[in-house]
User: Fold Protein HflC from Celeribacter baekdonensis.
Amino acid sequence: MKKLPIFIAVLFVAAVLAFSSFFVVDERQKALVLQFGQIKAVKEEPGLSFKIPFIQDVVYYDDRILSLETPEIEVTPSDDRRLLVDSFARYRIADVVKFRQAVSTGGIRLAEDRLKGILNAQLREVLGADTITSNTIISAERASLALRIRDKSRIEAASLGIDIMDVRLKQTFLPEQNLEATFARMRAEREREAADERARGAEAAQRVRAQADRTVVELKSDASRQAEITRGEADAEKNRIYADAYGADPDFFEFYRSLDAYRKGLNGENTTMVISPDSEFFDYLKSNSGR
Assistant:
């Protein structure tokens, strides 16, 4: 009977030792087996693994792609227009041995702090280059700038055992103190453009008016010339008709001209004439012979 409790105790200790000797690595993880702080084994494949109980420990690291948002920083491009930029990165732990050696027990938190420093330094370096302006940063070229930041950061992050998969610029905007000055400059530029447009419009309108005035003068001059020619031709034709009529019958022509003079002079509108009764004007009114 005394052997049974001993057997149970031995069985319990064996179970505890067996339980402490095995560990499971998930497919989303990598693991390091540590003995007194030294790396003894690397477990990157999922499954059941063995360790020495009470002597060796297991540290797990996430093998998935992780996200990191960097704090908002201020950059100064070559045109001296300060910008606030925030970004995010995607990374994964590529080498758990290097990662452990770089951050020790600090883990992901310490690694991300260092990674933020690397990203911020590369953001300032790339976006502050001599060939980069604020317009470049906010244009479609920002994608290529993000790739340059990623490639430069990846080189430095390799010492941490981290592989940076992607870097993106989330937002790019002006500091609050610069907004009003920028808006004022934009307003001034638009007002100058509007003034230029108005000046060009006034110049074009003046040209159109001058051309219209010149066309009116030319049309009136041409019309007056044509009218004078027509009147001259009519007068010439009238004189020719008079000449022909006079040549055909001078007496009748003289009689016709006298009647026309009576019609115009005695038109019944209270015409007053002071003239001698013996005047030739009345020859056809007093002659019995009609002359």
Summary: Strands lie at 22-25, 29-35, 38-43, 47-50, 56-62, 66-69, 73-75, 83-93, 162-173. The chain has a mean pLDDT of 81. The chain has three domains: 11-62, 66-173, 238-291.
